Amino acid sequence: MATVSQQAAAQPLTEEAPERIEQVLRLQRDYFAAGHTLPVSFRKAQLRKLQQVLKQNEQLLFDALYADFKKPALEAYGTEIGFIELELKLAIKNINDWTKRRRVPETLLNFPAKSYVYPQPYGVALIISPWNYPLNLLFTPLIGAMAAGNCAILKPSEIASHTAAAVAEIISRNFDERYIAVVQGGVQTSQTLLAQKFDYIFFTGSTQVGKTVMKAAAEHLTPVTLELGGKSPAIVANDADLELAARRICWGKFLNAGQTCVAPDYVLVHEDAKEELIQQMAKAIKDFYSDKPIQSPDFARIINTKHFNRLRTMLLPEHIRVGGHIDADNLYIAPTVLDNLTWEHPAMQEEIFGPILPVLSFSNTAEAIKMINRHEKPLALYLFTNNQECQEQILKQVAFGGGCINDTLSHLANPNLPFGGIGNSGQGSYHGFASFDVFSHQKSVLHRGTWLDLPVRYPPYGNKLGVLRKVFKWL
Ligand code: NAD
């Protein structure tokens, strides 16, 4: 029997019929309206079911990720399957607390009263995901949508086709489509979905498509979260431990062959430390992937020919300090470090999203800040220094989504840190409680006591203005 992966590989891209999309949406609307998703017991049971289903299908998912990228099993577990398991565990453990109404302080103006915020599910959510972490970026928002009591339609990326097929099969076999459904397809399907009225749209992908999504959402005044991309810098000051910085930057950059939204896109290093840092990065690459990274089982491949060809135009020989080798048949680009380049270089014109790491230098912190602030606000920023003054200067003066001091990517591993971008790198955030929160409307309700009804607010107003002024003064 053919595996899901083999079936996916054999299938050309098909777009979902609009009638089918409308039908699933109608079913989900009715299911939500009937209140099925409201009880916390239902949500918890469904999250547990998802936990179980993912466990049962773990090998299928590993295989699909390998078929799409040759994603090493450790990376597939650490950044996708294991990550989702942790988010599920956290949601199941905390859902009782998260769903409780939250009392907020009262104001004397309303005496006697108590005020509460009730988290309320939006209804039917649309979750659109990209190809680079095709499980994580579909299931992590889904966990938030489920915990918050929504129905959801999932649109995986057609580019990671094996994983999309595996997810569609797993979900359709185990979940009622009136509650969770997967719609497969490409841009056309995505646009058909976006033309519908959803109650929430959670989009992860490029900044350019993010704008299309926001425009479509505006038609229906649908609230959106946009998790987008951009050029995330790694700044290395001259007091940094350069060996450690090189290892941590190379790990964050070359994981998933650089196809990570929060990968350090480029390095900005103090000019006095540049040469040593490049040497240390060459050493780290060799330590991680040997002299022949093409033979390393721990280094992934570029997702498709289009991205491979886009990336190869960045490999101008005069700038290559480490790596630079390519193999088109295997969609392989070696872990590569570029040096002596300016912002006009092709690698500095767009988000790289591949295993190519340009190194630029600065002479003082203010100059580094200026360079970053001249461009769009990045999704992530990594700073390597133990100098607190430098840390504060950069944290205060540069706007970015999130990041780390003396590390890369690891902020995503703490679910207590809301994850999201700013400006061109996105809006809204999720992970842990923030995922529940983003899929919940905060319904604010004041419960007024009935035993006292002061007449000051009622007409005729007569000379009550003076009394009202006094009340406002006490507040
Ligand atoms: P993409 O924007 O091309 O595609 C994302 C999704 O949108 C896919 O499901 C695709 O089918 C759909 N889509 C594509 N074009 C569309 C259109 N014109 N109209 C409607 N829908 C459309 O992104 P990608 O290439 O899959 O992913 C790479 C990008 O995603 C990078 O920019 C990366 O930084 C970003 N990203 C961001 C995060 C984050 O968490 N902030 C995570 C991963 C990737």
Question: How would you describe this structure to a colleague?
Answer:
The chain is an alpha/beta fold and about 475 residues long. It is built from 16 helices and 18 strands. It is globular and about 85 Å long. Helix content is about 40%, strand content about 15%. Strands 10-13-14-9-8-15-16 form a 7-stranded mixed β-sheet. It has a 6-stranded mixed β-sheet with strand order 5-4-3-6-7-17, with helices on both faces. Strands 1-2-18 form a 3-stranded antiparallel β-sheet. The N terminus is likely disordered. The structure holds nicotinamide-adenine-dinucleotide. The site of nicotinamide-adenine-dinucleotide has 29 residues, from helix 8 and helix 9.
Descriptive labels:
16 helices, disordered N terminus, binds nicotinamide-adenine-dinucleotide, alpha/beta, 42% helix, seven-stranded mixed beta sheet, 475 residues, six-stranded mixed beta sheet
Q: Please report the distance between the alpha carbons of the first and last residues.
A: 73 Å
Q: What Rg do the Cα atoms give?
A: 25 Å
Q: Give the helix proportion (percent range).
A: 40-55%
Strand order of the largest sheet: 10-13-14-9-8-15-16
Q: Biggest sheet, open or closed, and with what strands and sense?
A: 7 strands, mixed
Runs in which pLDDT lies below 50 for 5 or more consecutive residues are 1-8
Mean pLDDT: 96
Q: Please identify the oligomeric state.
A: single chain
Shape: globular
Count of helix runs: 16
Which secondary structure elements does this structure contain, and how are they paired or packed?
Layout: H1 4-10, H2 18-33, H3 40-56, H4 58-69, H5 73-99, E1 102-104, E2 113-121, E3 124-128, H6 136-147, E4 151-155, H7 161-174, E5 180-182, H8 187-195, E6 200-204, H9 207-220, E7 224-227, E8 233-236, H10 242-254, E9 266-270, H11 274-289, H12 305-312, E10 320-322, E11 326-327, E12 332-333, E13 336-338, E14 356-362, H13 365-373, E15 380-384, H14 388-397, E16 402-405, E17 426-427, H15 433-438, E18 440-448, H16 465-474
Parallel strand pairs: 3-4, 3-6, 4-5, 6-7, 8-9, 8-15, 9-14, 13-14, 15-16
Antiparallel strand pairs: 1-2, 2-18, 7-17, 10-13, 11-12
Helix pairs in contact: 1-7, 3-5, 4-5, 4-7, 5-6, 10-11
This protein binds nicotinamide-adenine-dinucleotide (NAD).
The site of nicotinamide-adenine-dinucleotide (NAD) has 29 residues, from α8 and α9.
